[in-house]
Amino acid sequence: MEADFELFPAQASTIAPLVDGVFWELTAVTAFFTVLIAVMIMVFAIKYRRRSQELPRRIEGSLRLELFWTIVPLVIVMYLFYHSTSVYFTMITPPADAMDVYVVGRQWMWAMQHTGGQREINTLHVPVGRPVKLTMTSQDVIHSFFVPAFRIKQDVLPGRYTTLWFQATRTGKFHLFCTEYCGTNHSTMRGTVHVMEPRDFELWQESQADGSLAAEGRKLFLKLQCVVCHSADARARGPVLEELYRKDVPLEAGLRATADDNYLRESILNPRAKIVAGYQPIMPPYEGEVTEEQVIQLVAYLKTLGRGQTPLRVEATQPPAAYRAPEPPK
Amino acid sequence: MIAHATPVKTYCLIFGGLLLLTGLTVAASLAPLGGLHTLVALAIASAKAALVLLYFMHLADSSRLTWVVALSGLLWLAILIILTMSDYLTREWWRVTDG
Amino acid sequence: MSTVLTPEAAEPKPDAVRPREHYLNVRFGIASWLLTVDHKRIAILYVVGITLMFFVGGAAATIVRVELMTPAGDLVSRDDYNKLFTAHGIIMVFFYLIPAIPAVLGNFVLPMMLGARDLAFPKLNLLSWYIYVAGGVFTIVALLAGGIDTGWTFYTPYSSADSHTHVIVTALGILIVGFSSILTGLNFVVTIHTMRAPGLTWFRLPLFVWSSYATSLIILLGTPVLAITVVLLAVERIWGVGIFDPAIGGDPLLFQHLFWFYSHPAVYIMVLPAMGVVSELVAAFSRKNVFGYHFIAFASIAIAVLGFLVWGHHMFVAGISPYASLIFSLISFLVAIPSAIKVFNWTATLYQGSVSWQTPMLYALGFIGLFTIGGLTGLFLAALAVDLHVSDTYFIVAHFHYIMVGGTVMAYMGGLHYWWPKMTGKMYPEWWGRFSAILIFFGFNLTFFPQFVLGYQGMPRRYHEYVAEFQILNVMSTAGASILAVGYVVPLIYLLWSLGYAKDAGPNPWGATGLEWQTPSPPPTDNFAKTPVVVNPPYTFTAKEAEVVG
Amino acid sequence: MSAESVHHDAHHDAAHHDAVEGQAAAPRSPQAGHSGAHHPALAHHFDSLEQQQEAQSLGMWIFLASELLFFGGLFTVYTVARWAYPEAFAFASGHLVLWLGTLNTVVLLTSSLTMALAVRASQTCELRSLRGYLVLTIVLGVVFLGIKMTEYYLDYREHLIPGPMFSLAGHELPDPLPGGTREFTRHVELYFWIYFTMTGLHALHMIIGIGVLGVLLILARGGRYTTGYFAPIEIAGLYWHFVDIVWIFLFPLLYLIHHGGAA
Predict the structure, then answer these.
(1) Same domain, yes or no, for A248 and A129?
(2) Which residues contact D217 (CB under 8 A, 6 or more apart)?
(3) Touching check for A281 and chain D: CB below 8 Å?
(4) Fewest CB within 10 A of the end CB: N or C in chain B?
(5) Preferred mutation among B90, B94, B96 to probe A, highest tally of A CBs within 10 A
(6) Low-confidence ranges of chain C (pLDDT < 50)
(7) How high is the pLDDT of residue D34?
(8) Of A43, A25, A24, A45, nearest in space to A35 by CA
(9) How close does chain A come to C53, measured CA to CA in Å?
(10) What is the rounded distance in angstroms from the CA atom of residue A313 to the CA atom of residue C34?
(11) What's the pLDDT tens digit per position in C384-417?
């Protein structure tokens, strides 16, 4: 992020060379045809410039030529489509072992949370050589997470999670921009991605150590009295949540859902959208009760919750207001 | 030359058909059809619309150009709805669950 | 096409008592203009409105460019900056680019090209001008009252829930002006179908008519969707019903779908008429029939249809389904083909022609080059992998300015110079014409080519402040914009000058074909004294018609 | 030239030059001069009444195709919203008064019949029945609007008008409830919002249609359309039937989806 002028942006992720590969192909095609057309126009315009009032002969056209300049571009664009699409699917498929980072965009800053509990504003520390998967949401309007040196971009939407992944190949500091216009201070919604050697990253992590994301989530799990119903005992009124992440969940009416991030988020904020088969719709919605950051902590906790790890129920706690009566008119 | 003015009887028949279909669609909405309600309702509505278009609006004996205009309106409406839904209906398909 | 010449078409005999009566001098006074139903006079009314809007939008752009000379936001406040680029976008798109060629040049020449006395619905034509003015007034009032800061794209939920500016009034202005273009499109389609001169079959039509027809199709089938979308936006803002805002149960991508269903085809509303103008210019100034006439004609229709199937490429990073992205990407690549066909055919038309380098031709040749770059850089955006990197950056800004300014504005300027003698009866000064055409071409490239590089480097669009390493290219761009601004002011001056001082043009100064050149300049109110009868294919140059004035 | 033959020629001409698109002769014939006796209804820029009539009818068809896309935006919003919240939509639909909606459908279909008969009367130059059918159509249109207003009033009394007054208090909510009460209420409100926009826009079209028919009625009383020129009646009819077709779809989509979200 040195302020030096570079004509071509740094390539700092495994994706960057792939994208640039497609880019150079497109540039070659563009340059070739632009030069071809420009040269032909200039040659014709000069060679056939008007010298007399004599009228040129009429040429209707040529089916052969038309077919030629229909089929050749068609073949070229179909190849480009194939190539760019195959790179695209690489770009949207994070490796299984990616390190999770959670991002919340809001006017006008980026809030990052690591699973270890480290939190950052407008800076993202990551290790070099390791895939990182970002799970992102917005608290207000649409933002967009863009790191030019990594050639990655994804809009960050309110109301749901979108994801992005990268694997940095160079240490250093790289620009992070918001690229979806989001209001007055849009152009200041910028940050830095700090790519570090793995050892340095570990040191950084330790220096920032706080309660891990999952630990914070566990505290919330107890504080919000989730455990009262989601207990792993005979008196459980809600489904057991152990080893739930990425499992198939049977829903009512024979439907199924995969317990991914978006499912867990929805089931906390708006539990009755997808009722697990065999359970009563008694859980209150937590929309407006918890912040996006807290939801992320809860989801992070649920992801780590293994067999037999559900905390014990504290007898004194009362169940939450299970079913709130319809609200009176506003 | 009055041949071109459709007989009153035809209009009345079409009108009768429209009333019949209206009754049918209300009845169908109350009948147990499982998941087919929307399909049946839209099919009946399309039939009614076709009757109005063909006879009341004389599309049946209009020029091909008029047909093209009417059909392109429908085609573009279909493009709008189908391509929009192609996003919504397939969004959930893409899940990276190989973790 | 050559026609059975009507005797009146030749230069009228000089009349010692009073000048020949034509559409400009047939009546005088403000009312005779504001209540006219003559398509030619209405075209002049549009020239006034559109020129005004062009310079208002241009002024906003100038301030934006000056602000961007330095990385810091030191000229205007953030808020004002956001309002300026929004004003620039809205005014240029809805009040200049979309109506410019159809409403001015189309209105003026289309009926004459068909050998008709007027458009099918003259009163509707006047009404659509008034609707245009009403929409313009609404928008200008909104801007004067404090402006709007959503960007011309009005993305929700920012526009519906967050922005504190005049979203509703502006949206209303756009809704209104949309009806203006619907009525114009309706008028064109009906006129082309029902009012062609005897012998003027579909494949004898000038290509400008074909492209106007294709444009009208898009206007008619796309604009109403935009209209209802801005209504929904206003309603969500007023009543807080969750259609687009996820915080109250809506979906922001639904807005984007509806918006781009119109606004992507709208790009073709802007550029198809430009392609039509260029077809006319290339033929007239190489004195040759257009190579591959049928292919250009059908390519216009293909663009109009395919253009409706690609809107999703504006949303590749927005969070739509990857499968939908796949379809939209494929069709977006395909839409390049008809555009390529046109470019190749125009180029081939020059081959063995008699190429004259007069001002309109300079614009036309400039158009072909710039449109080629604009079109090919569109492939970068159709390509999913690259689009993810360049979307919402200056790459996009550069790309669409190559299409809209390099394409539409160049063609509008070319067409305006080409038909100026017909509209006013006067020649513009040729030296100044060429001078400003060249100035615009170089100014344009200096302004927008650096933005491709900026975009790939990663500079986001709509940034008031930016990081220091982007400055060099921004300064180049601003320098180019200053040249461009001068390039646009010069024609304004000499064209106005020509009204009073330039020499008379005569009926056909270019030796061009087309029925509009078979009638005196300026034409009489009814265009033709007798209905012309077309007997030849389009762009048939006969020796007799090849006399050049000026 | 009798009215029938004018009509016949218009049809013949249209069919002819569109059948062989492109290669056929252009619509205007060299014989159709600009001179000669003018029909009073013929505008100066047309060569003949046939040409004028064809242009006006084509113009109306194109306008209606455009109108379809105007409603089309709303149909898209409806499709997406109903796909997302089927239960709320079914629940909300159950709060409309089915028999009033059905009655209104019948009223509107009847008005379409009388409109078609009015156009027929103009074709056959039966002026008296033309005026009669126009009056009947207008009356049926007003009845439709009256019933619609009644329904709106009932919704108002039940606090179903979207906005600050909207409330589902006092309504028995489905059990189990998909989502929380607040979300569910929101989605029901969204349904009602779409309902009011669609039917309101439809009613606006009806009001415009009634106005147009009113003008035509006054002109018909003044003795217009006696000479075989009936294009204004015909294109007003096209508009009226189009508005009817929109309702034909609105009725099942809004009133008849109260079976739960299975569909």
Answers:
(1) no
(2) D131, D134, D135, D138
(3) yes
(4) N
(5) B96
(6) 1-12, 543-550
(7) 46
(8) A43
(9) 25
(10) 82
(11) 999 999 999 999 999 999 999 999 999 999 999 9
Residue of B83, B88, B93 to mutate when probing chain C, most C C-beta within 10 A = B83
* Among chain C residues, CA nearest to B70: C221
Q: Give Cα A22 to chain centroid, integer Å.
A: 22
Its domain, for residue A268, covers 213-304
Q: C221 and B84 in contact by Cβ < 8 A?
A: no
Query: What's the pLDDT score for residue A298?
Result: 87
Q: Check which CATH number belongs to the domain holding D200 and give it.
A: 1.20.120.80
Residue A57 forms part of a structural domain: no
pLDDT grade, residue D38 (50/70/90)?
low
From the list C36, C91, C97, the residue with the least C-alpha distance to C219 is: C97
CA–CA distance, D87 with D81 (Å, rounded to integer): 11
CA distance D71 to B49: 15
Q: Which of A164, A187, A210 is the last residue of a domain?
A: A210
User: For residue B95, what pLDDT is reported?
Assistant: 65
Nearest CA in chain D to B81: D76
Q: Is A122 found in the same domain as A228?
A: no
Alpha-carbon span A230 to A268, nearest angstrom: 12
**Residue in chain A nearest B98 by alpha carbon:** A96
Please check whether residue D154 lies inside any domain of the structure: yes
pLDDT at D13 over 50: no
From chain C residues 68-127, the ones with a CB under 8 A of any chain D CB are 115-122
Residues 158-197 of D with CB under 8 A from B: none
Q: Helix (H, G, I), strand (E, B), or coil: what is residue C120?
A: coil
Q: Is residue D136 part of a domain?
A: yes
pLDDT, residue C542, reads 67
pLDDT at position A237, please? 80
In chain A, which residues have their Cβ closer than 8 Å to the Cβ of D169? 326-329
Average model confidence (pLDDT) for chain C? 91
From A210, A232, A252, give the residue that closes a domain. Answer: A210
- Whether the Cβ atoms of residue A56 and residue C353 lie closer than 8 Å to each other: yes
Q: Put the strands of the sheet holding A172-178 in their side by side order.
A: A123-127, A190-196, A172-178, A143-147, A152-156
Interior CA angle at D52 toward D50 and D53, to 5°?
Answer: 65
Rounded Cα–Cα distance for residues D188 and C519 (Å): 64
- pLDDT value at position D95? 87
Asked if the C-beta of C341 comes within 8 angstroms of chain A's C-beta atoms, the answer is yes
Q: Is the predicted pLDDT of residue A320 greater than 80, yes or no? A: no
Residue at A278 is within a domain: yes
Burial (CB < 10 A; 0-12, 13-18, 19+), residue D28, is buried
- A226 and A165 within one domain: no
Return the CATH fold of C38-545: Cytochrome C Oxidase; Chain A (1.20.210)
Q: What is the pLDDT of residue A206?
A: 81
Residue among A272, A280, A328 whose CB faces D178 most closely: A272
Looking at residue A105, which CATH number applies to its domain? Answer: 2.60.40.420
Task: Mark yes or no for CB contact D19/B64 under 8 Å.
Answer: yes
Question: How far is residue D75 from each of residues B43, B85, D148, D196, measured CA to CA in Å?
Answer: 16, 12, 20, 13
Residues A204 and A242 in one domain: no
Cα C376 from Cα C363, distance rounded (Å):
20
- B32 burial type by CB count under 10 A (0-12 exposed, 13-18 middle, 19+ buried): exposed
The answer to whether residues A84 and A6 belong to one domain is yes
Evaluate if residue A322 carries a pLDDT over 50: no
Partner D contacted by B54 (CB < 8 A):
no
The reply to whether C275 touches chain D by the CB within 8 Å rule is: no
Q: Which two tokens stand for residue A131?
A: 């895939």
State whether residue C80 sits within 8 Å of chain A by CB.
no
Give the structural domain span for D123. Answer: 70-255
Of D165, D178, D180, the CB nearest to A284: D180
Does residue A328 surpass a pLDDT of 50? no
